Every structure is written in structure tokens, then in C-alpha cells.
Amino acid sequence: MAAFSLYPIGYSVYLSLHKEVLTDPLKNPFVGFQNFSNVLHSYYLVSSLVSTAAFMAMAVPGVMIFGLLSALLLNEAFAGARILRVAILLPWAMPAVVSGIVWRWLLNGDYGLLNSALYQLGIIHDYIPWLSQPALARVGLAVAHVWREGPLAAIFLLAGLQTISPDLYSAAAVDGAGRVAAFRRITVPLLRPTIVIVLIYETIVAATTFDLVYVMTGGGPADATSLISWFAYAEVFKFLDLGAGAALAFLIALVLLGVIVLYLRILRSEERR
Amino acid sequence: MTAYIGSRAFLRPAGLWAATAVMLLFILGPILWMLDSSFQGENELLTRPSHLIPQQPTVANFDYIFTGTVPQGLNVRGTLRSRISQEAREVPAALENSAIIALTVALVNVAFGALAAYTFARLKFRGKSLVFNFLLGTRLLPVIAVAIPYYAIVSALGLLDSYVGLILVYLTFSLPFTIWFLRDYIISLPIDIEEAAQIDGCGRLQLFLRIVLPLAAPGLAAAGAFAFMSSYNEFLFALLLTQTIGSQTLPVILSSVATNPDASLALIATSVVLAMVPPLIFAIVFQRFLTRGLVAALGKG
To answer: Which CATH architecture has domain A2-272?
Structure first.
């Protein structure tokens, strides 16, 4: 079991330090950090980092806000919550590929439902090719991502909400605390550990998004949605450069680790205050 | 459980229902539109504005996928539409592949995961945070990084394009999570019952089968559902490790149906609707267990 999960990582390290191009299979010399340096100097590095950052800047807060609002709603005692609890599982239960297909269709510039709805409501006078414009395509990709990933965040946060003892709220009510005060003083601090876990998990998921790009935009238009993991895929499966692909993957992991450490720092310094 | 919920209503009922309506529209709208579209003909789907209510509802799309009778709407568009046809017709077989693979992964996860988790939970075991960090750490690495090594291993074992190859890979991804999750779940169970049973002369194995398993059932259901979903939805490895419809899973077939530039909208919608059936069943059946299982696991987290 351990071998099956550790060996691939070791093999990846090996690949990243050797020249491994499938078009030239017999020459695999040790090249040190050459692959890393090549990746860092590649034509796509800056643009893909910008695309990934732009996508994450919308996708991660989107997922968190959607998750938090839905969790609060799901935690209420009314019939709607019971319907929502089943409904919200559906997007998450679908393959990301399905989310990509569905949203590509909804946002289509010729026959998409969003255009149709906006047109019939008189908000737009002409169909808009959402996915053909770089900025809009990024928003569209982020919306599709929130649609599929938000529900999982909601379920985790709901579980977090339900671990908070109702006695605390009763006690707060006895002490004359209002709803807002109870939310700020009880819900937020006690939910924080769950929020941190979900935030870290969703950051990783957003940063390594691949399936959605593959079916929804194919990286376009003009590389606007060519996220960094898309290039890791291209290095390996289009350019057949296994070494560069592995090196790029490790660089992504390194950056992610940095982001997560930053999160934890900020959260801890807030706790101290 | 109900005592927890709504101990403090945050919004007024009207606000709650309005928020629920918006949420349901966002969540279910896209799904319902696919369902709607799967009963429309190709020409109707291309009209502006779209028809929310099919003018000429038809089951021709489903008929095509299951029997191969070409829908009229597609004949009109000529031979260009022929490529999509082949791929869409593979949806039922892919559905079967996906179901077999995901169910096997879920069952193995529950069986092995429960045993391993019980051992971890009741044995003195330090370094829980280490395990958790390792789990998160392996997730940090984009799957592309380990894709090639896995390909090499599966290929060396002669398991390319087989159920077993995919199942093995999915197990390595899902088992660590299952064990971690179930361990926390089992720890949350009251130990008194087990101690009482032991005093009454109950052996370790009997204890596990008769006492722990029934108590941990919601957690097992949740872990099984997670394993099922993650295998059912996985795309990249399925794309790499399968080559023929003998083992290709649904996401692979769906992506080839949908990324074909000549794709027939009606058939895409119908394929998507068919792909949604198993997750739908799972969501409805396991909804209660998912949150309950998570509450218990997080409570001790």
C-alpha cells in the first residue's frame, strides 16, 4: 500500500531530475535542476500563473462564500432545508466533466440558455459569446467550478455547524445576546477550524483544476483559461516531456505549500488578536 | 439531530424561502435544463430563444443511445453527424464500467478501511496529525505528477485497459482518506459498550463484527459514498489507463462525446442525463449518512 503510493512520488522526483523526452527515449542523462530551470524560463509560465491566480481569486472565495451561505441555510429548521440537503449533493456527485459540459452549453453564444434568458428578459439585445472573451471565460470557468465544488464545502461546513452545541446559543439568549452577536461570538470562532480545513482543501482543488478546463474551454480563448495544471498536462501528453512535466508539478506543489503556510500564519495572527 | 437545527433562526421565513429558491435555481437549473434538452430534437435545441418547454417532445435520443435508431433531427444534418453517434452509443457500456469499478472501490474501502481504522482507533497511536498532514501533502501534488509513474506501474503489471488497473489506482487514492475518516468516526463512539462486551467475554473479532460495525454504520455509509463518488467522477487516470470501451469509464466517454466539434446537442444532453442517474440515486440514499458521518468525524477532529 505504502509502496503503491510512495513509489510514484519517488519516481516523479527521479523524472524531474533527468532528461526524459519520449521522442528521444534512449538518452536519459541526469540533468540536475535543468528541467526546473527550463520550466521557470518557459514562454507559458507567467501567463499560466496569471490565469491560475485570476481563476483562484474568483473560484476559492466563490466556493467559500457559497459554502458558508448554503451551510447556514441548510442548518435552519424548515422544510426548504430538507429539500436543499438532497439537491445540494447533486452537482458534487456529478463528474467535473459533466459540470464542464453543462456550463459550456449554458454559456454558449449561439444557443446558450443564459443568453436566451437574458435576451427574453430584455437585459441584452444580442447573444453574448461568454466563453469567447478571455475575461468572461475565466468568470464562466469559476462559476462552473463553484457549482460543482461549492456543495462539498457546504456539506463540510454544515457538519461543522452541527458540532456546535445548541446550549451555547440558549445561554447566549439568556444573557440577552442578539442573533448577530451570537453569530459573531459563537458561530464564527467555533466554526473556524472547519473553515480552515475547507479553505486549504478548496485552495488545492482550485489550483490543480484540470478536468473542467479540458472539457469546458480547452484552455482558451487566447490561453485565458490555460491554468498551470493544464500546462503540466501539455508538457507530458502533448510535448511528451516527462521531466519538465514532473518539474512543473513539483513547482506547483511548492507554491501551494507557500500559500497554505501563509493562510495558517494569517489565521493564527488573527486568533492572537 | 433536530434539536441542533434551527435552535437559532437567523432569517425570517420569507427570507429563508427566497434564499432557498435562488439556491435551488442555481443548483438544479443546469441539471433540469439537461433533462429538458434530452427530450428535445436537435433543431429545436438550436433555436433562439431556447424552448423551456419542448414543442415537440421526443424520446428519440434515448432510443438512439440504447437501440441505434438515428433520430430524425440528425438525419437532416447529414453524414457529419456520424462520428458523435458512435461515441454516444457507448454510454450504456461506459455506465456499466463506471458502476462496476466505483462499487468495487466503495466495497473494498468499507471492508478494509473499517478494519484498519478500528485498529488505529483503539490502539495507542501517536502522530495523528502526521497522517493528516501526509494526506494533505499528497493532495498538494497535482495528479499529473504521479500520473506517469502510475501509468508505468499499471503497464508493467499488464493491467492497462482493465477494471483491475483502475480499481487499484482508485484504492490508493481513496483508502487513506477512508481510514483517516473512519478512525475519527470510531473514536467518537462511546467505548463503554465495547468494554462491557469485553467483560462479558466477547472476543476482539466478535466485538468488531457485532458491536463496532453496527454502531459505525453511518460512518461506513458516508465513507463508502465518498469512495464511490470519487471513483465514479475521476477523469485523468481513466483517460490514461483505458483505451477501449471494455474498460473506459463514463467521464472519458462523456468528454469524447462533448469535445467532438460536431457534437449533437441532443445526444450530449441525453448522455449527461444518463450519467447523472447513479449519482442521483447515491445522493438521495446517502444524504442522511453523509452529514451525520461528517459531524461525528469533525466533532473529534
So the answer is: Orthogonal Bundle (1.10)
Nearest residue of chain A to residue B48 (CA atoms):
A111
Q: Which of B1, B12, B20, B108 to mutate to test the interface with A (most CBs of A within 10 A)?
A: B20
The set of residues, in sequence order, having a beta carbon less than 8 Å from that of A185 and lying 6+ positions away, is A172, A177
Q: Indicate the residue of A86, A116, A252 with minimum beta-carbon distance to B50.
A: A116
What confidence score (pLDDT) does residue B6 get?
44
How high is the pLDDT of residue B5? 42
Residue B243 burial (CB count, 10 A):
12
Separation in Å, CA of A223 to nearest CA in chain B:
17
Every domain of chain A and the residues it spans: 2-272
Q: Which fold, B90-299?
A: MetI-like fold (1.10.3720)
Does the reported pTM lie above 0.80? Answer: yes
Where in chain B is CATH 1.10.3720.10? 90-299
* Cβ atoms of residues B254 and B272 within 8 Å: yes
Residues of B in contact with A1 (CB under 8 A): 172, 175
- Please, which residues bridge with residue A131 across strands? none
Q: What integer best gives the mean pLDDT of chain A?
A: 86
pLDDT in tens, B130-139: 665 666 566 6
